[in-house]
Amino acid sequence: MSDKPFVFLLPGMLCDAEVWRNQIAALQSQYELYIPVFRGFDSLEAMALHVLALAPAQFSVVAHSMGGRVAMELMRLAADRIRHFIVMDMGVHPVTPQETERNEQLLALAAHGGLGAVAESWIPFMIHPARHQDEVLKQSIRSMVLRNDIADLRGQLQAAQDRADQSLYLDKISHKVFIACGDSDNWNPPELHQRLQAALANSQLQIIADCGHMAPMEKPAEVNALLLRWLQA
Q: What is 6-95+157-230's CATH number?
């Protein structure tokens, strides 16, 4: 077992270690990193329990998007084991009718055109407009999506649809919570993160300029600098 501090990097929906590739390069000399993959799961609590089964006694959490909701379940289940808690591009609000409709549209798109169609529809919405011609970034996201299957999408959407109202957890969190968000995140906009910050007893928010939902991939230098600073706080 390494004597370096242990950090989980939790990916979002249909994502895997690729979303953290640049962060792995920046952090691996100082931290023991583990990136779980949430394929085959259909509840956030089950994802969190899977993470806890892999966890040492003490660990830190860095989470993106759906991974942030998994992180909130970790905080609910095992707050005393968490050292640093960092979330980005995520929300804690309950399910909305608009979200349900969006999820149903994604499933219909997948049934008709497969995950390739989901990726083509999803990517422009997920990244900053300035990156719409960045074929390297787009192909990296597309390849990551295609490493899943429709059952994985269905399970993760079911986990989102069945989730608890995690805003009810916030007044019980005594940790300092570090929050980051792209200024052009269409999936979980900055105002959600501002409300999250306001509801927490101790938190810090960094909004990343010219960035969409995929902050770790879109703005790796900025995210790396935040993580290196926050994990030392």
A: 3.40.50.1820
> In 3D, which of 39, 193, 72, 66 has the Cα closest to residue 126?
66
pLDDT tens figures, 130-169: 999 999 999 999 999 999 999 999 999 999 999 999 999 9
Residues 7-21: tens digit of each pLDDT: 999 999 999 999 999
C-alpha–C-alpha distance, residues 106 and 181, integer Å: 23
Give the C-alpha separation, 152 to 15, whole Å: 11
Tell me how many degrees the CA angle 217-32-23 measures, rounded to the nearest 5.
Answer: 15
Q: What is the DSSP letter of 175?
A: S
Question: If DSSP codes are grouped into helix, strand and coil, which group holds residue 91?
Answer: coil
Helix runs in 12-96, H state only? 21-27, 44-54, 66-78
Amino acid at 56: P
